[in-house]
Write a structure and sequence with these properties.
Elements (H helix, E strand, L loop, with lengths): L1 E5 L12 E5 L6 H7 E6 L4 E3 L2 E3 L1 E8 L8 E11 L5 E11 L10 E6 L3 E3 L4 E7 L10 E9 L7 H4 L2 E6 L12 E7 L9 E4 L11 E6 L2 H6 L4 H9 L1
Antiparallel strand pairs: 1-11, 2-16, 3-13, 4-5, 6-12, 6-14, 7-11, 7-13, 7-16, 8-9, 8-10, 8-12, 14-15
């Protein structure tokens, strides 16, 4: 896991050149990225889970273009915000679920990744990314992407963990789509389960409940051509 940028820096590290399957971040333009942030939302509800201070899970629905359904994810970006007035150390745990939950539960757990504790500067908004490498995660038509924090290996208190959350981004989503709905678990959780109890919610449309995510994946060559991204198609046209 790597940090891409801390908002407010003059330069923004360039995004990878893979094919974008979902995106509501402006990764090549720091000004646009900052302008697209409309609010933040703290996970909250921190409590001890198996002896480790842990927050609630907060997740968003992501719908991917048809060409990417079933394709392997290569890189994932997500956002965080520390509303504390001091730096806080915590682990980020990103979690992914099928879109088959009930009105009061999250869907089937697909996979997730846990990262070593990192320090979040006071008042800092960050974008992070993770290259999946040999880890396999294939996209479905619609999935839920979530984040939870814990204090494993740190002295971070539940009060401090309650000050950590995600960024809410301006509509519309640039690639893919997302409904005006998010999910928050009822209790603190590491997110490693299916059917997590919780509440689906929004902010009455102001802003829309869309958190900052970006997925990059590898579609089949035919799909790339359909998307206007097929290198082979470009070469054939040049030979004519």
């Amino acid at each position: 896991m790597k940090t891409l940028l801390a908002l407010g820096l003059v330069a923004v590290a360039g995004a990878s050149q893979a094919y974008v399957a979902y995106d509501n971040l402006y990764l090549n333009d720091a000004a646009s990225l900052n302008n697209s942030i409309v609010a933040s939302f703290n996970n909250g509800g921190a409590a001890a889970v198996s002896g480790i201070n842990t927050t609630r899970l907060v997740a968003d629905d992501l719908t991917f273009p048809v060409a990417f359904v079933g394709k392997k994810v290569t890189r994932i970006y997500w956002t965080t915000y520390n509303s504390n007035t001091t730096a806080v150390s915590a682990r980020m745990r990103i979690r992914f679920y099928k879109n088959d939950g009930t009105a009061t539960t999250m869907g089937t757990y697909v996979t997730g990744f846990t990262f070593a504790a990192t320090s979040f500067a006071a008042g800092a908004a960050n974008v992070w990314y993770f290259d999946l490498g040999a880890n396999v995660m294939n996209l479905e038509s619609t999935m839920w992407a979530g984040l939870t924090f814990d204090g494993s290996g740190t002295t971070t208190t539940t009060t401090q963990l309650n000050g950590l959350g995600q960024l809410i981004m301006a509509d519309p989503v640039r690639v893919g789509s997302s409904n005006d709905v998010a999910f928050q678990s009822t209790a603190a959780t590491g997110g490693l389960a299916s059917g997590i109890a919780g509440t689906y919610f929004n902010f009455s449309g102001n802003p829309k409940a869309n958190f900052g995510w970006r997925f990059e994946a590898v579609p089949e060559p035919a799909s790339m051509a359909a998307l206007g991204l097929g290198l082979a198609a470009v070469i054939r046209r040049r030979k004519k």
